[in-house]
Amino acid sequence: MRSSIITLLFFMILTGCSSARMHSHRFQLPEQEKKEGFRVLFDGTNMARWTSNTNEYILQDGCIVMQPTDGHGNLYTVEEFDNFVLRFEFQLTPESNSGLGIRHKMITAPRGYDGMELQILDNSAPIYEKLKPYQYHGSLYGWIPAKRGFLKPVGEWNYQEVVADGDNIKITLNGTVILDGNLKEATKDVPTEKVPKTLFYEKGHIAFLGHNSVVKFRNIRIKELE
Q1: Are the CB atoms for 158 and 137 separated by under 8 Å?
Q2: At 66, is the secondary structure helix, strand, or coil?
Q3: Which of 57, 121, 171, 186 qualifies as a cystine partner to 179, CB 3.0-4.6 A?
């Protein structure tokens, strides 16, 4: 009996299935964030709070990893949110292109967007050197450009905070505010018929919007604002 247990333990260590390894990627909220009212949306152990494209967005080594097959597709939170502070970490691959949807409606078609998109992009890739200012990382796509120069090198983890408070959107990347804008201000000189209603949805899902790139996400938490 004892030899069987030793053999089993040895096999678990070799295959990486030991209990310690299985829980080594589990994210727990810092005490300060608990006090502030944050809660976890993804702790590295399961994707129970996420839905839709779970074929391309997979759980891997404590991360949600976009592994594209047809190149597009969205992953949504099960819940909807209106005003919030969202914190997460992400890791880019060379030439990666993705998006963070906020106040998004759920699209059941293979591809499509129905809400705001905050760009996630490898700004350093030569193929993106001639984009419009509002197409680079952190920008409210198509409307408000973000400051550049604050992404870590590809392959390193970045930390981002997104605050959506009414018409105000603020993004902090690795400790630097790269976008601080107001939706009404950004659209005030645009004819009403050309302003998409998607910018002013009051509530919706948080989503990862796939663009045929491998991107990793981890340690996702949220605090809802009153």
Answers
A1: no
A2: strand
A3: 171
* Distance of alpha carbon 179 from alpha carbon 200, whole angstroms: 18
Global pTM value: 0.88
DSSP code at position 197:
G
Look up the CATH architecture of domain 26-224.
Answer: Sandwich (2.60)
Quick one: pLDDT at residue 74? Answer: 92
Q: Helices H, strands E: what count in the chain?
A: 4, 13
Give the span between the Cα atoms of 188 and 47, in whole angstroms: 39
What pLDDT sits at residue 72? 64
How many residues would you count in the chain? 226
Q: Which is nearest to 121 in space by CA: 175, 86, 160, 83? A: 160
Query: Hey, where are the domains in the chain?
Result: 26-224
Give the residue among 156, 112, 120 at the shortest CA–CA distance from 136: 120
Confidence class of residue 57 from pLDDT cuts 50, 70 and 90? Answer: very high
What residues contact 112, with CB distance under 8 A and at least 6 apart?
Answer: 74
> CA-CA distance, 96 to 204, in Å (whole number)?
25
Backbone angles phi, psi at 73, to 5 degrees: 135, 145
CA–CA dist 89, 87 (Å, integer):
7
Q: Mean pLDDT across the stretch 45-60? A: 94
Alpha helices in 25-167 (DSSP H): 31-36
